[in-house]
Amino acid sequence: xxxxxxxxxxxxxxxxxxxxxxxxxxxxxxxxxxxxxxxxxxxxxxxxxxxxxxxxxxxxxxxxxxxxxxxxxxxxxxxxxxxxxxxxxxxxxxxxxxxxxxxxxxxxxxxxxxxxxxxxxxxxxxxxxxxxxxxxxxxxxxxxxx
Length: 146
Fold this sequence. Notes:
Layout: H1 14-21, E1 24-30, H2 35-46, E2 51-52, E3 58-60, E4 63-65, E5 67-72, E6 77-83, E7 85-86, E8 89-90, E9 100-106, H3 111-121, E10 129-133
Antiparallel strand pairs: 1-9, 1-10, 2-5, 3-4, 5-6, 6-9, 7-8
């Protein structure tokens, strides 16, 4: 009598990725300042109220990466800032030169919105550089899904 091997079930994350990133824009930010100083400066310059969200912290290889969030209710836009660097480890290994990742999610966003925000961010004194990122090019983008 032949033994029947159980089939392995494989979770297909492509639908989850597609839905999560459907209305999202990403900006990569190079800023050597610690997260508390970076967030304070962003809140001060843009009149936002980013707060650390302990429930959304992301655990990768025994390290917890901080996540900050802010919602513009009147525009139905959610802003999430991920710390990409923790000591010598990275949330997204393929973005080792990026310190923070700013995700903007909302139903009425276009690429122009992210470009304008990136230009405004370049004017902030503690930010060295920022760039609009293409999430489809990120290999470990599943780390960003909350």
